[in-house]
Amino acid sequence: SMSEKRYDYLIIGNSTAAIAAVEAIREVDRDGTLAVVSDQPEHCYCSPLITYCLAGKVPQEQMDYRPGDFYEKAHVDTILGVAATEVKPAAHEVILEDGRVLSYGKLLLATGGVPFVPPIPGGDLSGVFTFTRHEDMRRVQEFIDGNVVRQAVVIGAGMIGVKVAEAFAHLGIETTVVELQDRVLPLALDQVASDMAQRVMEDHGIRVLTTAGATSIGGGSGKVQSVTLDTGSRLPAQIVVVAVGVRPNTALAEHAGISVNRGILVDDHMRTSAPDIYAAGDCTEGFDPLLGETRPIAIWPGAYMQGEVAGRNMAGQDEGYVGSIPMNSIQVCGLPTISVGLTTPPEGAEVLQYRSPDGKRYRKFFILDNRIVGALFVGEIDRAGIITG
Fold first, then answer.
1. N or C: which end of the chain has fewer CB within 10 A?
2. 3-class SS string, the chain
3. Which pLDDT band holds residue 358 (cuts at 50, 70, 90)?
4. pLDDT value of residue 55
5. pLDDT cut 90: percent of the chain above it
6. What are the angstrom distances between the C-alpha of 164 and each of 42, 119, 176, 202?
7. Quick one: pLDDT at residue 42?
8. Using one digit for the tens of pLDDT, what is the confidence trace for 6-20?
9. What are the residues whose beta carbons fall under 8 Å from the beta carbon of 25, sequence distance 6 or more?
10. d(CA 132, CA 47)
11. What is the predicted pLDDT for the residue at 296?
């Protein structure tokens, strides 16, 4: 094998959790050797901004999550654009796709999430994309620049689907969103809030079809031309984005024999089932204190806090993580929404709600045993921080 290099700390992944871990490790240990490996070639960037960048609302150079000299200043070796293909827990080694072998004292898996792509016939046509990474944005931009794109179909009306649709509409593309559930943003909003969000999307020229599934994608000469729905109708489209969800990226961990449920299982110190291997961010299954159980919670602040706890413990401190409360904050065509905690009321909960007479503001709280366990704000969110706290 190629020459082996040893690091005290090795991190696979280069997004929020990884950056937080680097910062935490360096707060505790200035001198330990540290490397970051990522299959993505870019400098760490703020993933929630990619749809804004596509729409031309945020310039490319404002996407970076940390300054250009971040790694240098933190004394980090970066191996970017190279995938890690295997983790060997017993040998404390990581194998890279170019054959390099890296050995480690402590390893962090911060591999993030991968878009779930249902097996739709025609999904391999040119012009069909997922949209979770910087390179997706770049490829979509290049495709729009190089082809005549008049109509777009977005499959899925979750957070990514809604923001991609908004970006397409902003670019003047006639856009239709197709969602299997009976409403947009079904995981974050209730029916009233979804109706408000759908109305503002439609005001911005986006067509919204709910309780509709895409059954196939049609094309000619290798390029996408239409999407066929389970209702039988066909939607013309020269670009299609599949945004039906993101799953924890657990492949490396599973292959290494590390315990995985839906996400990589971690304890409150972010340790996996393998010695000296930690995990943080969207690839994990984290503890949800409201439900009293673990589940994947793919949110930005949660990933940062998990990475921070992992980094401190990797560097020899003893710090527990209290868990994340799911929180989503999304602007739908200028309408701000925030949902925190449980989105459906648990049994015996008191439900308080307010809706303004003009229908533009809406608030709802769930209270159980004198504790707020869920909250939803639409249109007016200035008090959301107090309730979240």
1. C
2. CCCEEEEEEEEECCCHHHHHHHHHHHHHCCCCCEEEEECCCCCCECHHHHHHHHCCCCCHHHCECCCCCHHHHCCCEEEECCCEEEEECCCCEEEECCCCEEEEEEEEECCCEEECCCCCCCCCCECEECCCCHHHHHHHHHHHHHCCCCEEEEECCCHHHHHHHHHHHHCCCEEEEECCCCCCCCCCCCHHHHHHHHHHHHHCCCEEECCCCEEEEEEECCEEEEEEECCCCEEECCEEEECCCEEECCHHHHHCCCCECCCEECCCCCECCCCCEEECCCCEEEEECCCCEEECCCCHHHHHHHHHHHHHHHCCCCCCCCCCCCEEEEEECCEEEEEEECCCCCCCCEEEEEECCCCCCEEEEEEECCEEEEEEEECCCCCHHHHHC
3. confident
4. 84
5. 64
6. 21, 21, 11, 14
7. 80
8. 999 999 999 889 999
9. 9, 32, 34, 311, 312, 314, 315
10. 7
11. 61
Mean pLDDT of 36-58: 83
93-102 confidence digits (pLDDT tens): 999 999 999 9
C-beta of residue 164 within 8 angstroms of C-beta of residue 53: no
Which pLDDT tens digit goes with each residue over 315-337?
998 888 766 677 788 888 889 89
Structure tokens at 16: 């929020």
- Which residues have CB under 8 Å from 373's CB, separation 6+? 290, 341, 342, 346, 349, 366, 367
* Spatial distance between the Cα atoms of 94 and 104, rounded to a whole number of angstroms: 8
pLDDT of the residue at 380: 86
**Single pTM value for the model:** 0.87
